[in-house]
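Lay summary. Proteins are chains of building blocks that fold into shapes, and those shapes determine what they do. In this project we predict the shape from the chain. Here is one chain we studied, written as its sequence of building blocks.
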Amino acid sequence: MFKKSIFSQLFFYTMLVISLSLLVMGVLMYGLLGNYIAEYKEDDLTYVAKSLAEFTLKVAERNPGYAKESYQMNVDALSVSTETLIVVLNAKGDKIAVTSGYENVNIRPEYYTGVMQGQPMQHMGTLGGVFKTTTLTVGVPIQYDDSTIGGVFVSLPMPEIQRLRTGVFTIFIFSGIFVFIVALLMVYTMSVRITKPLKALNNASKAIANGQFERRVSLSEENEIGELGDSFNKMAESLEHLEDMRSSFIANVSHDLRTPMTTISGFVGGILDGTIPPEKQDWYLSIVLDETKRLSRLVTDLLDVSKIEQGNFKPELRELDINELIRLTIIKSEKRIMDKDIQLTVNFQSDNQRVMADKDAIQRVLTNLLDNAIKFTEEGGFLDIRTGTTERNKVFVSIQNSGIGIDKDDLIHIFDRFYKSDKSRSLDKKGTGLGLYIVKNIMLAHGETVWAESEPDSYTRFTFTLSQAPPAKRNEKNNA
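And here is the predicted shape, written in a compact code that computers can read:
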């Protein structure tokens, strides 16, 4: 089936509109031009007839003996100059003068009676069979002292009018052809200009669909198409970035699955076949236990991501003391903090900070952020944890650590799925890039925000907010 392109449709319909417009204009012009020329010629004939009527009256008044031959010469001269047929009648309808060569022309009484009564006459036709073709005839009375003494009739054959209309219309036709050719070139250029970037976008889209995520478009248009190109490039960049993270994630997950499985399989096999002596089996079993926990955390992360992306995570908001939850989280990580000789400072604005949140979800947030902070803090570094209230009566939790920090380019992607900054790869060998993504979505599900601040080779600080518990509940807890 033939597929119509945007170029062909745009070109065809634009030219169709232009062609129809020119056609309608031509038809209207041809019709209106005929009426206009007829009216214009009617005015001209009326002027000629009145001029001859005045001349005839003056001749009759001032020079009664004016020779008929001289008068006839004037009539013939006027007839030739205006390309008309002139007939002059007296009050009885007798011919006084007529254009030479048309002496046999006789105007019937029904056409000159009104003129002899002082009423001008206009007639389009053969004048009762006087003419063989359609003719425009104008008659005006010759009046003297409120009485009509005769009439002047001036006729112009319609072919003369048609010839004038045809000449004007011919000019329009040639002008229309010129305009059509110019419009053809302009529409073609415009269609190419519009469809070329769209074609580039289409080709780039197909390339990206085939996995060429590095493909970009370069559009110079400063209009909506140019904006579309910029949006497309941003989308392609995001897809390329996501694909890189996905590939890295698959590699990390594959490694994280293969390594502990290999370790577990090797140690369990060694215990079963006696390679590992009984006195060392407990030590190796503890390693197997750590690896299974590691696998469990990975599976939990994957399940949480799946639940979040399917929109199935709904936090159960309950009142809790965020400070107490932080204390419990620190206790769980106390050994790791001491092993790295990290200087820990905890600063709570109040001893009891009641918030409304999902306890398990916020526990997950605190655990992920604290694990990250400990992981990236250098030996002998510092770790600072704070809580307080903001100007908008929100509770904030801040976890800051010293260390390598995060580059500005990485900072904007730090909460993206599968993302691991280049600096962190050497330290975060067991991470999958899902922890902070889960943190962000947990906070979004709470209707709260989380953000990161960092200075490379100095510090990194993560902060999130929570809603305070209602005052009545806080007071009841404090009184208790």
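What the prediction tells us: The chain has twelve helices and twelve strands.
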